[in-house]
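INFO batch 0412 | record 1 of 1 | parsing
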Amino acid sequence: MTLQAPTFYFPAPRAQKFCSQCGNPLSLYIPPDDNRLRDVCDTCGAVHYQNPRNVVGVVPVWQDRILLCRRAIEPRYDKWTLPAGFMELGETTAEGAMRETQEEAGAQIELGPLYTVIDVPHAEQVHFFYLAEVQSAELYPGPESLEAAFFDLDDIPWSELAFRTVTTTLEHYLADRQTGVFPVHHYVIPGPFPK
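INFO prediction complete | emitting tokens
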């Protein structure tokens, strides 16, 4: 496995404007003994760390067909995606992946092993996709999906996929099906980085 060397940059601060401890406005600067821009309260000294958000999902397969959901929300409204979404506090990545599959597709699955871990530094995210076997062809898409459908491997709507992480995961799934070996893949989706 070969990973790119990290590219360090200072992302734009998130929307937090006030200290969660004392309510005073935050300033953006590099605190002593640190190397990154942070939101810092000049009144009480609290440093507000912003960390990557985890996206969790599955590669759901039913009789050699892939389950995809057509998004009913932005970003990428009306595009196809694997069932996935942000991990909630108090759950594991596996629990989050199963929950997102239920919420977006209404599919019953048997969760398999972790399959891809994809760093998306420019979006401040890490995506985790598990392999999964769908247990029934019955689907009940939730409000975040316009529809959910099974696609033959030759009919995946590549030009209509919502995210590069989905495309990357599906490309490697199809390649791994040729060998029958499904190792864990770790990738970095590059840029765009600030100039």
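INFO post-check: The helical segments are 93-105, 164-179.
INFO record closed
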